[in-house]
Amino acid sequence: MITTFLTREWGLRHPILNASMTPAATGRLARAVSDAGGLGMLGVNEDWNPADLARECAAAREGDPGRRFGIGFIGWALQANPALLDAAIAERPFLISISFVDPAPYAAAIHAAGIRLSAQVQSRADAELALAAGVDLLVAQGTEAGGHTGDVSTLLMLQIALGLSSVPVIAAGGIATPAGLAAVLAAGAEGAWVGTPFLLAPEASVPDGARARIAAARETDTVLTSLYDRLQGYPWPERFRGRALRNDFTGRWHGKEDAALADPAVAAEFAQAKRDGRYEVANVYAGQSSGLISRGIPAAEIVASLSTGAEAILRERFGTLLADP
């Protein structure tokens, strides 16, 4: 059995959290991951209101009012709708994650309610801000991750975060197999924040057309782009671009965002494709680890296979790597 801070102090059976991906990580996915022994996270969409959040929290608790789960916020969306934090605190989740902004303005209220606070960090400066805010867990997110991320690799970001303090650190980005989980645990992480493999889980809210694209993708089939955010007017900080699957649309317009914005027909084409689920134009956010997955399995199987497989690798590998002097 793998033993880390997450199993000793948080009582998890497996040191795995699903990424709070929007709109994929709903209450149903969070429930499945928590029931499997990880910590399920639901992601708050930028257009949610408190009623939407309450609905998904109810889904996360369905069948067990005491089930533990977490709630993940995109920082700029929370800044635009601060009432959502009050709604989240009222739900009393086990963990609240606030990423892509300084979490300091929210930390006191979260901790006063007895809720743990985490933040995804993509640079040394991000990690230092999060630690100064008093987070209970750092998520070292590498550029391999799907969706919005920075430019630093997972392994490097993990090393940076581990060197800054004794606050527990987990790794995010590119972790899709037991070997990936074993690698970050061996490096000092207390667990993993896993995204892309859960996009194909039946419990995730992902359209069939997007699932097919992810299943067919190779590790080289993603692009880190601001194209989709700019077309939709989302106020993402410039340094956080979204890792999406390449398609005809990114082939035409990635790197030419100003020209795309100058032509109303381009935005209209994207908006219609998004409504119609035409993913040769519409975005599918997914990480480089899409090259490691080709079929969907239930969330519980993902959690168990990652953890038990990593344990087997660590037991065998360390037995051969380490010898008495």
Description:
- It is a single chain.
- Helices cover 45% and strands 15% of the residues.
- It is an alpha/beta fold and 325 residues long.
- The chain has helices at residues 5-8, 27-35, 50-61, 75-80, 83-91, 104-112, 124-133, 154-162, 178-187, 196-199, 208-216, 227-232, 248-253, 257-262, 264-276, 299-321; strands at 16-18, 40-43, 69-74, 95-99, 116-121, 137-141, 147-149, 169-172, 192-194, 222-225, 241-245.
- Helix 2 (27-35) runs parallel beside helix 3 (50-61), helix 3 packs parallel to helix 5 and helix 9 packs across helix 16.
- Strand 8, helix 9 and strand 9 form a beta-alpha-beta unit.
- The model has no long low-confidence stretch (mean pLDDT 97).
Please describe the structure with a list of short key phrases separated by commas or semicolons:
325 residues; alpha/beta; 3-stranded antiparallel sheet; 45% helix; 15% strand
